[in-house]
Amino acid sequence: MQGQSQxxxxxxxxxxxxxxxxxxxxxxxxxxxxxxxxxxxxxxEDGVVLAADKRARSPLMEPASIEKLHKADDHVGxxxxxxxxxxxxxxxxxxxxxxxxRLRYGEAMGIETLTKTITDxxxxxxxxxxxxxxxxxLIVGGIENGEPRLFETDPSGTPYEWQALSIGSDxxxxxxxxxxxxxxxxxxxxxxxxxxxxxxxxxxDGLTPEGVGVATITVDDAQYAEVSAEELESILVExxxxxxxxxxxxxxxxxxE
Length: 257
Known about the structure:
The chain has 257 residues and is of the alpha+beta class. 36% of the residues lie in helices and 22% in strands. It has a five-stranded antiparallel sheet with strand order 8-1-2-9-10. The longest helix has 22 residues, at 84-105.
């Protein structure tokens, strides 16, 4: 009982470490990320692929209103998992930083520099009293100096670079699948297929074109582009991933995507 009350005392203050070196509010923020539906990022030889599970919780909901993939700049895309409102704040911050860099230096902002700018902003909310951490994780992918780069942001404010990763619900299972199936040197088209295969691992009923989102940024033009529903349907049918039941399953929470 004493240990429980001690934890409650430390988890009320974001700026206070517990005796065993933990920041409970940051750990709780990571739990919020796990409640969000999954997003996947894959770095290919000639580009970056971002994919997200964006199933609607109700057939009355407009699929276009579910925001999981975002264009931060012409050459940068972001996928999110966790608190939607927190994700929107960080996306807006990233867009402002990218535009400031273009105006100030006359060039596109590097993917690593942009990611670290975002994580510096996130980290401030682990040190300021009266504020809470961002309950969201982001996958930041794009083209930097002709090379594809792929990063993850953590609620603690730590950036990680990956070849392929997943965030959100069932992260461990999806990461295990990626570790088994990912190969260096794959093309962007192959990465799109792998991303959809990965999302399908936790969707027993299959995927629908409206229930997933996929975006690519290729080395050739360094332009963020979302894959259309018609193209997605063709890929899902080809890979035998199309849902057999037209009704979308209920998924996630009102504030988590």
